[in-house]
Amino acid sequence: MIELRDVSFISEGRCLLKDINCTFESGRCYIVSGEDSVGKSLLTKILGGIVKPHQGKVLVNGKDLYLNIDKQRPNNQIGFVFQDGVFISNLSIRENLQLPIKYFKSQISYGELINRIQLLFEEFHLDIALLDERPSELAYSAKKMISFIRAILIDPEIYVLNRPLFNLDFIDMKRIMSYLVRMKNSEKTLIMTGNSRTLMENLADEVILLVNGEILVKESAERFFASTNPAIKTYIENNLG
């Protein structure tokens, strides 16, 4: 479970997130939606242990994620997937995939790791030769799916995914969707951003709508789409069709 308590973030005098209080229960799927630049990506980075909030606490299973900033944070419980697949540019894809294992799953042998990677590459229809490429040599879709694989490798209880379907073609989108459904069915906690009605209706236990850095509503997808709130209706019409 992740709990946000009075979380705020200020940049250049502007409050990007304001007094966010929200609980993400274990084994449920949440989709954070909203217009561009309302704080969705920032919120995922705070949840993933990447950006520390200026105010408030992030609790993972009751422990403060940012309490001991210089010590190993409990990121082995959280798998983070960046929107554009962020990698260390001077390392090969193989070396990039080894890093989280080195820090969080050191008991896994190199042979076992390569076997897991090969199976996941086959599942996502990726050429195993990509392991020896540098990130800059990969297509956008390949980077995105390999970023997803990197999170899967540490087998976390919580996945935080920033726009997992963004800019993918239909076939790759179906592959990611299929795996997300499997993760949900295995009772992993999923927290995603996105403005995809398909994602919301097929996966979300709850939809969270951010407006100007604040949570306007947090409710089931069914209630969200049936809402009579003028602000929600306008958002759905303009962004979700």
Strands, total number: 10
CATH topology: Rossmann fold
Radius of gyration: 18 Å
Structural class: alpha/beta
The low-pLDDT segments are: none
Q: Give the topology string: H per helix, E per strand.
A: EEEHEEEHHHEHEHEEHH
Mean pLDDT across every amino acid position: 89
Short description, anyone?
With about 240 residues, the protein is of the alpha/beta class. The chain is built from eight helices and ten strands.
Q: Layout of helices and strands, plus pairs?
A:
Elements: E1 2-11, E2 14-24, E3 29-34, H1 40-47, E4 55-60, E5 63-64, E6 78-81, H2 93-104, H3 110-123, H4 140-153, E7 158-162, H5 170-185, E8 189-193, H6 197-203, E9 206-211, E10 214-219, H7 221-225, H8 230-239
Parallel strand pairs: 3-8, 3-9, 6-7, 7-8
Antiparallel strand pairs: 1-2, 1-4, 4-5, 9-10
Helix pairs in contact: 2-4
Description:
By secondary structure, the chain is α/β, with parallel strands linked by helices. The protein has one domain (2-239): Rossmann fold. The chain has eight helices and ten strands. It has a six-stranded mixed sheet with strand order 6-7-8-3-9-10, with helices on both faces. Strand 4 and strand 5 form a beta hairpin. It is globular. The chain starts with a strand and ends with a helix. The mean pLDDT is 89.
